[in-house]
Fold this sequence. Notes:
This protein has one domain. Helix content is 70%, strand content 0%. The chain has helices at 8-30, 32-41, 47-67, 71-90, 98-113. Helix 1 runs antiparallel to helix 3, helix 1 (8-30) crosses helix 5 (98-113) and helix 4 (71-90) runs antiparallel to helix 5 (98-113).
Amino acid sequence: MNSLTPYAAFFMRLAVGGVFLSHGIEKFQRGVPAVAANLHGLHLPFASILAVYLIAVETVGAVCVMIGFYTRIWAAAMAVNMAAAIVLAIMPRGGTFELEGLLFAGAVTLVALGDGPLSVAVRFKKGD
Length: 128
């Protein structure tokens, strides 16, 4: 391991969180009814609840990931979202899922790496 390895999480957090945030802002601007209608079109139950969940993960969760606060929890939620998007929305339509696949891989990587040393969470860790 080289001396820069511990900081890899920082750049991954910015990349993954930034992409999720841009998509989350777009969903927030469209509103819960529009996002729920899209989910209902995929025949998903509880579309309104899922819409609120997606908007929360892609906005609040993205900001938390970017600053390094509860990164593993939010990244796990993001990975689940991307897996569901690939299986439920993209593959049935015969689409390609390069972006979703990369976001899934990035989110799983963040679950493994955690917050990293360049994070807000470092201030709250015990024993420091």
